[in-house]
Design a protein that fits this description.
Helix content is about 35%, strand content about 15%. It is α/β, with parallel strands linked by helices. It is globular.
Length: about 475
């Protein structure tokens, strides 16, 4: 979820294109919106409490357990460790010092998790529909293992259990797409399908798209593509760049439901642009798939029906559009897909390396994905109604506290910014000590003006848990500079 794209050899901002020499290209991640003099440049983490102090939890220093050989870094590894963290220094500081990063969860009970001897309510889960706890899905796995073993170790180009074909067909029907291609993860798709689509053409990447999309852009750059970035709130600039572009293919890459704000893109306007300039729109809808879907007069919530993603939710077609989504969030499994016409699917079977060289997901993942699709068809609306109700309850409570949030959509990703980003670590510790587990979003996960806490609601949360969270947020607002309404 970290929005830190790797540096291109040509960085294009709104109006200036600056070539970089090979010596200027940083070996570490560098987000195009992070020219920040406040970010520590040294390898050492920013000042803070000593590891393992102040939180009542074990430190995150990576010390091997007693009895395990204490391996010392050799000269080669020391050269790696000598590199500065740069803009990632604050993230590394939290990983080392904070109880809400890199935690070892010892037990779960519904949406409560135990870390050491402390139980917390989990508001960091992406299992939006609660399928990770669904007994029908859980109990289906042994039958699949009896039929298929634990793992089909062929690469997909060699052989495919029929489960792949069945899931692709069911998925295409659900999405209303011409066809789908399954690969293990969304990151696999961004690193392979995105470069395959753009070739040596031009890729336009939205500035705040997920970090893995920017990683795919870096891969495309290495294969000869031109990479440019844009902001979706300035589509006039994107249009000027598309008009001036002289190469094909042209691909525009964006988020669907954004993983930090919880908001969707101006999809209709983007599609009008890409179709006018013979480009392809590439949409990462990891957080929308399963939650939002097609609209209907009898829909029980504004999320729509069927959970078939942002394209259907906004009433658009798949002409010159590739929708990327995954099962690791709403479906609580390990599998990902890209929609595409069948002729493009055949092209990608040769041009997207994971289809040829990667091992497939385990049978348990295929089982939970396939049964999850059936459960979604049979009772997914019940889960979405619960999810919407809990999310609406939380948003109303946040507004009643006088707090503001980046969320304008009503979707179950709610970030509350701090007016002083330096207090993020302390705020996270405050919530943790009071039994609330959330995602603390420091710089550079988000721009400094958006540093705060991200809360994710799932259908497996309860009204009582939402009330507890609101009570703790009320207490936090008295001690920390959480952004206020107005």
């Amino acid at each position: 979820m970290i929005d830190v794209p790797a540096p291109p050899t040509t960085v294009q901002t709104a109006s200036v294109t600056t070539p970089l020499s090979p010596q200027q290209i940083s070996p570490q991640p560098l987000s195009p919106h992070l020219a920040d003099p406040a970010a520590p440049a040294a390898h050492e983490a920013p000042p803070g409490p000593a590891p393992g102090t102040g939180t009542g939890t074990p430190s995150h220093t990576g010390t091997p357990p007693a009895g395990r050989p204490q391996a010392h870094a050799g000269a080669g590894i020391r050269h790696v460790l000598a590199r500065p963290y740069g803009v990632m220094a604050e993230m590394d500081h939290m990983r080392r010092q904070s109880p809400f990063y890199d935690s070892r969860v010892d037990e779960i009970d519904g949406r409560r998790i135990r870390i050491g001897d402390r139980w917390l309510i989990d508001f960091a889960s992406c299992n939006y529909l609660g399928f990770d706890l669904d007994r029908e899905i859980i109990e289906s796995v042994p039958e699949y293992l009896d039929l298929w073993g634990t793992h089909p170790s062929w690469s997909r180009i060699i052989a495919n259990p029929r489960l792949f074909v069945e899931i692709e067909e069911t998925l295409a029907d659900l999405l209303g797409a011409p066809d789908t291609l399954l690969l293990p993860t969304i990151s696999h798709i961004h690193l392979s399908v995105l470069p395959a689509l753009v070739g040596q053409g031009t890729l336009f990447v939205e500035l705040h798209a997920h970090s893995s999309v920017h990683d795919g852009a870096t891969m495309a750059l290495g294969r000869g593509a031109t990479v440019r970035r844009f902001r979706e709130d300035r589509l006039d600039r994107l249009e000027r760049r598309l008009r001036a572009c002289t190469t094909y293919p042209r691909v525009v890459a964006i988020d669907g439901v954004n993983s930090m704000t919880g908001n969707g893109p101006p999809l209709a306007e983007l599609l009008e642009l890409v179709r006018a300039y013979e480009a392809v729109l590439y949409v990462d809808d990891a957080h929308g798939f399963g939650v939002i879907g097609e609209r209907a007069p009898d829909e029980p919530t504004p999320y729509g029906l069927r959970g078939n993603g942002i394209v259907r939710h906004l009433g658009q077609s798949y002409d010159d559009l590739i929708l990327v989504g995954g099962f690791s969030k709403s479906y609580s499994s390990l599998l990902a897909f890209a929609t595409c016409p069948t002729e493009l699917k055949d092209f990608l079977k040769t041009m997207a390396n994971p289809y040829i060289f990667s091992g497939p997901p385990p049978v348990a993942s295929l089982a939970t994905a396939q049964v999850g699709l059936r459960v979604n068809a049979e009772r997914g609306e019940r889960a979405r109604v619960a999810l919407y109700g809990l999310t609406a309850r939380l948003l109303a409570g946040i507004r009643a506290l006088g707090l503001t949030t980046l969320n304008t959509s009503g979707y179950p990703i709610i970030e509350i910014p701090l007016t002083d980003p330096a207090r993020a670590d302390a705020l996270g510790a405050f919530l943790y000590e009071r039994g609330i587990y959330v995602t603390v979003a420091p710089f550079p996960l988000v721009p400094r003006e958006q540093v705060g806490v991200r809360i994710q609601v799932t259908a497996a949360n309860t009204d009582a848990e939402i009330d507890t969270l609101l009570d703790v947020l009320d207490a936090a607002a008295r001690r920390f500079p959480l952004a206020q309404i107005g």
